[in-house]
Design a protein that fits this description.
The chain is an alpha+beta fold. Helix content is 26%, strand content 25%. The protein has helices spanning 17-29, 49-61, 94-103, 165-178, 180-183, 191-196, 245-257, 281-290, 299-302, 311-326, 396-421, and strands at residues 3-9, 14-15, 34-37, 42-48, 67-68, 77-78, 112-115, 129-133, 140-146, 153-155, 158-161, 205-207, 224-228, 231-236, 243-244, 263-265, 271-276, 304-306, 336-339, 350-360, 363-374, 384-391, 435-440, 446-448, 483-488. α1 (17-29) packs antiparallel against α2 and α1 runs antiparallel to α7 (245-257).
Length: 496
């Protein structure tokens, strides 16, 4: 029997416990035991064709929109799950989110993101139409377009008022979809040409004096039962991405019993429940104990973003997390992504990308992996630089360790640069010199003079020429003369 996936969108990641409960009851009738949440804050339910009709008939009866094995209407993503618990003292409150989401009274075919500027919990630029709250004026928004199926990004020179977001969004979608040759899968797509056609006569806008802010990535620990203000929030993450239907049904009933009006699904495939009263804390702990829900996963596991509906990506994540844990490697401030499909949208500082050395129609052989880093390791940047390419799976843990070390060297350089820039001119030292890197020509492993190889007894700042004559690559054991020099400045480095 054929397996199919039912997709249900929750705009902004906001879920009514009552609606979710009804969906889960319908899922139970179709013998669905587990559900998953997706990167764009939607619900995935896997079933077989034999039971699918039972489920979809129930959804039709409940007047719940859904799609089968496709996503023509990608969900509207928002940073609302972070509001009040990870983001405070912002003009972008629950009421503003609700106003924006309710005003968008159509189902966009393009990806729309609605985000607070002062957070990195929800990706700001993984949409095609990205609204970012302004710091210049309350209720005004920056607009950043990322043209579909490209990394071409354009920022509008106007700020848009909250009440005009829906009108501008509708116009942009219509223009892009009706001029697909010009604006879709076209690396020469022009934002200037697009915005020449936008009509703003009945919209409230004003000139932007600054660009949209870029918040440094700092992923909060998003699981557990945690106190905020005079209440608690609960974050639940599942290693296998599977949430048992019986557990979620009881969770919905407990929300109703304790007068919790919302559940949030996040871009990390987890859920958050806000507004839990102190008096109800024991009830929530009892629910977690009943279903043996683990609440304390390692941070180096929580900061992975992988594709939806990909067992392969999930297996690779678990493989890499195992090695990160064994080696006790620090990963604070890093977002890892895994991509096995060409057009997947993954938010990452460091990306592991699969490809095939032989990739012909109907024939895919010899899988290898490239490791890429986002510009300045900022996940919101859409440009990537290759750190290491063509790696067999067995080499990935070591190469991942090395790029993580690069990240911390970069962070140190940035701090030094800031320190120098804040020093009076007469006290400023010379600019940071270029860092020498040597790359193995066989497996592309990098030796950095700045980092050295502590595990081999080589201290940081050891010149390559001072290494022993019998030095060899730590990954493939190639000899010293198989390494070639590449140059990295503080901004970039280029592979030969």
């Amino acid at each position: 029997m054929q397996a199919i996936t039912i997709i249900i969108n929750f705009p902004g990641g906001i879920i009514s416990p009552g609606n979710l409960y009804n969906i889960l009851v319908a899922a139970s009738k179709a013998k669905i035991q587990y559900v998953r949440f997706g990167l764009r804050q939607q619900l995935f339910l896997d079933t077989i064709s034999y039971n699918a009709e039972t489920f979809t008939n129930e959804l039709d009866r409940l007047a719940i929109d859904y799609e089968v094995d496709q996503s023509q209407y990608p969900n509207i993503v928002s940073s609302y799950p972070a509001e009040e618990i990870f983001v405070r003292n912002s003009w972008l409150t629950e009421g503003v989110y609700q106003d924006v989401l309710e005003a968008i009274d159509f189902k966009p075919r393009l990806k729309v993101n609605i985000c607070d500027n002062n957070q990195s919990f929800t990706p700001m630029l993984t949409g095609n139409i990205n609204w970012i709250a302004s710091v210049e004026a309350e209720h005004y928004w920056h607009l950043v377009i990322r043209f579909p199926k490209t990394n071409v990004v354009y920022e509008w020179d106007q700020l848009c008022y909250t009440n005009s977001i829906s009108k501008i969004t509708r116009q942009i979608e219509a223009l892009i979809t009706s001029n697909s040759d010009e604006f879709i899968d076209n690396i020469n797509a022009s934002g200037a040409e697009l915005f020449k056609q936008i009509l703003t006569d009945d919209c409230i806008t004003k000139a932007a004096t600054n660009r949209a802010p870029s918040t440094p990535f700092n992923l909060p620990y998003y699981e557990g039962l945690n106190r905020y203000n005079n209440k608690y929030w609960l974050g639940i993450y599942r290693r296998d991405e599977l949430f048992r239907v019986t557990f979620l049904k009881k969770l919905c009933l407990l929300c109703t019993e304790t007068k919790v009006g919302q559940i949030c699904c996040t871009s990390w495939k987890s859920i958050i429940i806000k507004g839990i009263d102190e008096k109800d804390k024991a009830l929530w702990n009892s629910l977690l104990e009943e279903f043996n829900i683990n609440m304390r996963h390692a941070a180096n596991e929580l900061n992975f973003q992988i594709e939806d509906n990909s067992t392969e990506s999930l297996d690779l994540k678990n493989y890499l997390v195992k090695y990160l844990s064994i080696d006790d490697i620090r990963t604070y401030g890093i977002c890892f992504g895994i991509k096995t499909r060409k057009k997947s949208e993954i938010f990452s500082s460091i990306l592991i990308r699969k490809r095939y050395l032989i990739n012909l129609p109907g024939i895919k052989l010899l899988p290898v992996y490239d490791i890429l880093r986002a510009k300045d390791f900022n996940p919101n940047e859409r440009t990537e630089e290759i750190f290491s390419s063509g790696n067999p799976k067995a080499m990935l843990p070591e190469q991942l360790r090395r790029v993580i070390m690069k990240f911390y060297v970069f962070r140190k350089e940035i701090k030094q640069d800031k320190k120098v820039s804040n020093t009076p001119d007469k006290e400023k030292s010379n600019p940071i010199a270029q860092e020498n890197l040597y790359q193995c020509s066989k497996c592309f492993t990098i030796y950095s003079e700045a980092i050295g190889e502590i595990e081999s007894g080589i201290l940081p700042h050891t010149p390559f020429e001072n290494l022993r004559h019998d030095y060899c690559c730590t990954v493939c054991e190639s000899s010293k003369n198989e390494f070639t020099k590449v140059t990295k400045s503080t901004d970039n480095y280029v592979m030969p």
